[in-house]
Write a structure and sequence with these properties.
By secondary structure, the chain is mostly beta strands. It contains 7 helices and 44 strands. It has a 21-stranded mixed beta sheet. Strands 36-38-40-42-43 form a 5-stranded parallel beta sheet, with no helix packed on it. A hairpin with a 2-residue loop joins strand 33 and strand 34. The protein is globular. The two termini are about 40 Å apart.
Length: about 650
């Protein structure tokens, strides 16, 4: 039987079959879910309707997981009859709170659209060790009676509308508490002296002023996760900037306002991010001692000096290095050059150095980094030629490269275009996936995954856009704002996976190659402000996903190709070319010859409905460029972006560990 789960409801018969036989539970509607005499898991099956009161007949049930379904209504009062029930997981439904079993030790009611204050009936669950109420619409203060649940080990209340002052000294009553997450609320905090926390997240609250002294003195030997990002912290309430927690793995202090030197986490750190602050000074060599570091994000600060070559000490682990939007001007011995030792970071996938003052030639040697996917070098002082391609410097995994607004003066690198194999791929993955670093952190007794979505700012459709997530199928080249010369190599037509190509504002000349018509995935093409001549090739009409096209300010002549995507472009795409004629320009073509044809076949005579469907899709955001959830128009100054787009989605996901840790 092949059921449509969304139409099924639990019935009295369903419960009876579960009660009588394990095999019966396994075969309900043909659903392959776990059922044992003491536990039932229906998570993700999309059963709907109200949970029947007859569930209270499963007298031996100890664990029930019906999360990620479509249940509604009150939690049935009959659950109170299940005196052996200790684990109850109801997240991602639409429940309201009813009567609960007093024997519960783990209770998850996340993502249920709960509103109002934290339900008072929860205070009767005196055996609770884990309470997850995250991502609801709860409001008001945390009731003091919650701190009477003295067995709590995990308390996760993040992403609600809770407010008021949290008197953290009340948390001292929770002697066993190890994991506390109050982030994305509206709290302020008072003193706290808990010494055994492992997880502390106060992300996105109303903490003002310097990081308080009491925070420096808690859990020095146990704390492994610390997130204070998106608050109003102005600095550190003591002179030392060496963080005191010896076991830290995960540290985020992003989007605050500290102005001092860069804080130094312990060598155990795996992810370290302090982007969007006002930190100043040089990168201290102590940072190079973090031999397990996988992610280092120091972007959008006021750091200066040279990039230390000792970052190569991180060669066995580093996946992400983001130093964008600082002022690395190389006043010391390296004179602004990138340290060649970065080529030793063989695990590196995401390198962002844009919007600095780096003065160097093209770092061709980074082509030896086998997994490098994203290379952002725009808005620096890179200069000269890009150099010849070499078999040892292939950039074999490169998906996106930004060299915009530098001082390159060579021909376009035809040999690179021939050998950037990943950009030739046109296959579309199943589902929507994003480039990310998945860092698994071993904590005491369990493993937690902290995914970090790669991001970049790149010029698309004439404007700088911030991509908070980069689709894994996106391929992009931005060489705009340099002084590249010569013609566009025909080999560029081999990069058939490209979605974005920007060669604008250079000194390129000659004809536009017809091989660009092979880039059938292309969604944005900018060739403006060059010296191209001749006619626009009709082969460009093959690009049915093209949503942006700009050849303005060149020396092009002849009629503009008609049909398909070209019917969607305005005058501004062709301005500054006195020799062009035809729609959409007001200059008519007076030649007796017909305008350049589109490719003809027995299936084409005019623009079909199918063609227009793709035209309209391309006219909008584009298929791949548009699905970059979170991309936003921005400038390179991250401070402005944070102020303007305050609800920035977090780059890592929390795992609800459900209190099953021994």
């Amino acid at each position: 039987m092949s059921p449509h789960f969304g139409t099924h409801h639990w019935s009295k018969n369903t419960i009876q079959r579960c009660q009588k036989t394990v095999q019966g539970c396994k075969m309900i509607f043909g659903t392959p879910f776990l059922a044992t005499p003491i536990g039932v898991a229906l998570s993700g099956t999309s059963f709907s309707g109200e949970l029947p009161t007859s569930i209270g007949r499963l007298g031996s049930l100890t664990a029930l997981d019906i999360s990620s379904c479509e249940f509604t209504g009150k939690i049935p009062h009959s659950l109170a009859n299940l005196t052996d029930l200790t684990h109850l997981f109801l997240s991602e439904n639409n429940f309201s709170v009813g009567t609960l079993s007093c024997q519960l030790t783990s209770f998850t009611l996340s993502k249920n659209q709960l509103s109002g204050q934290i339900p008072s009936c929860l205070m009767n669950l005196t055996h609770l060790t884990s309470l997850f109420l995250l991502e609801n619409s709860l409001e008001g203060p945390i009731p003091s009676s919650l701190f009477e649940l003295v067995n709590l080990r995990y308390l996760f209340l993040y992403s609600n509308y809770l407010n008021g002052t949290v008197e953290l000294h009340l948390l001292s009553k929770l002697k066993d508490l190890t994991d506390l997450d109050l982030s994305s609320n509206r709290f302020s905090f008072l003193n706290y002296n808990k010494n055994e926390l492992e997880w502390l997240s106060l992300f996105d609250n109303k903490i003002h002023g310097p990081i308080p002294k009491w925070m420096w003195n808690i859990s020095k030997e146990t704390l492994e996760v610390l997130d204070l990002s998106r608050n109003f912290l102005t600095g550190f309430d003591q002179h030392s900037v060496v963080l005191p927690w010896s076991r830290l793995h995960y540290v985020r202090l992003d989007s605050n306002m500290p102005q001092g030197p860069l804080p130094i986490p312990p060598p155990s750190t795996i992810q370290y991010s302090v982007s969007g602050n006002k930190l100043r000074g040089e990168i201290p060599p102590l940072l190079c001692n973090m031999a397990s570091l996988m992610l280092l994000d120091l972007s959008s600060n006021n750091l200066n000096g040279r990039i230390p070559p000792c970052l190569a000490n991180l060669s066995k682990s580093l996946l992400v290095l983001d130093l964008g939007s600082n002022d690395f001007n190389g006043e010391n011995q390296f004179q602004g050059q990138l340290p060649r030792s970065l080529a030793n970071c063989k695990m590196l996938e995401h390198l962002v150095l844009g919007n600095n003052q780096i003065d160097d030639i093209f770092p061709f040697w980074l082509g030896a980094v086998p997994h490098l996917k994203v290379l952002i070098l725009g808005y620096n002082k890179f200069h000269g030629e890009m150099g010849s391609w070499h078999t040892n410097f292939r950039f074999p995994q490169l998906c996106a490269i930004d060299l915009s607004d530098n001082e390159f003066t060579s021909d376009l690198p035809s040999e690179y275009f021939q050998n950037w194999d990943t950009m030739k791929l046109t296959n579309v993955s199943n589902g929507l996936w994003y480039l990310q670093a998945n860092t698994r952190i071993e904590m005491q007794g369990y493993t937690t995954n902290f995914p970090y979505n790669y991001s970049m700012t790149i010029t698309n459709k004439g404007m700088q856009r911030f991509y908070e997530k980069i689709p894994d199928i996106l391929k992009a080249i931005d060489f705009s704002g340099n002084n590249f010369i010569g013609q566009i190599p025909t080999y560029i037509g081999n990069l058939q996976g490209l979605h974005l190509l920007n060669l604008g504002d250079n000194n390129l000349s000659g004809p536009i190659p017809s091989s660009l018509g092979n880039l059938t995935q292309l969604e944005s093409l900018d060739l403006s402000k060059n010296k191209f001549s001749g006619e626009i090739p009709w082969q460009l009409t093959r690009m049915t996903f093209l949503g942006f096209f700009n050849v303005s300010d060149n020396h092009l002549t002849g009629p503009i190709p008609q049909g398909k995507q070209f019917a969607t472009f305005s005058n501004t795409s062709f301005d500054g070319n006195p020799g062009l004629c035809g729609t959409p320009l007001s200059r008519a073509c007076h030649s007796p010859e017909a305008p350049p044809p589109t490719p003809s076949s027995s299936k084409e005579g005019s623009v079909s409905k199918f063609d227009w469907k793709f035209a309209l899709m391309g006219y909008g955001s584009g298929i791949v460029i548009g699905i970059s959830i979170g991309y936003s128009l921005t400038s390179w100054k991250h401070e402005w972006f944070v102020k303007t787009f305050g609800n920035r989605q977090r780059k890592w996901a929390r795992i609800e560990r459900m209190g099953l840790r021994s």
